[in-house]
């Protein structure tokens, strides 16, 4: 009794020994390492915001302004932002590679994912490092109460 198996549905041709950098392997390693680091960063973020001090009732604009005035928390938030966006973008890239059936479709979807990740990283990083709760020259009636003493 002989049976044959149908060829697997795969968008890529299999080559036995490909020269160069194995991007899939490094993407796989990045997902594992960034996932572990993200767990630490996220639980640290949640602990400081929800458990330390007055807890959830203390979360307001002044709390965020005070936190973003500290370079340690700026870098903490930027590391969390970068790792999470790249981690999510890499996961979406993997889904596109698995489920998009045409080469053009994969290219368009992966380009859209890359553009979204880059734009969000740039905007998020700018917000964290240029955040000023008390901008000079702003009308005093629009400023938070802790800025009016300036």
TrEMBL record:
InterPro entries: SQR/QFR_C/D (IPR034804), SuccDH_FuR_B_TM-su (IPR000701). Its main location: membrane. GO terms for molecular function: metal ion binding. GO terms for cellular component: membrane. The keyword Transmembrane helix applies. The chain crosses the membrane at residues 29-52, 72-90, 111-131. It is found in: Membrane. Keywords: Heme, Iron, Membrane, Metal-binding, Transmembrane, Transmembrane helix. This is Succinate dehydrogenase.
């Amino acid at each position: 009794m002989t049976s044959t198996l149908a060829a697997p549905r795969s968008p890529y041709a299999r080559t036995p020994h490909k020269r160069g950098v194995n991007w899939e392997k490094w993407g796989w390693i990045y997902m594992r390492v960034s996932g572990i680091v993200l767990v630490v960063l996220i639980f640290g973020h949640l602990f400081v915001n929800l458990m330390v001090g007055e807890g959830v009732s203390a979360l307001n604009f002044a709390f965020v302004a005070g936190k973003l005035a500290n370079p340690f928390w700026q870098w903490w938030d930027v590391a969390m932002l970068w790792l999470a966006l790249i981690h999510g973008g890499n996961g979406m890239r993997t889904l596109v590679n698995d489920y998009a059936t045409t080469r053009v479709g994969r290219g368009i979807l992966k380009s859209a994912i890359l553009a979204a990740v880059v734009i969000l990283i740039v905007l998020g990083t700018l917000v964290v490092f240029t955040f000023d709760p008390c901008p000079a020259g702003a009308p005093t009636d629009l400023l938070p109460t802790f800025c009016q003493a300036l």
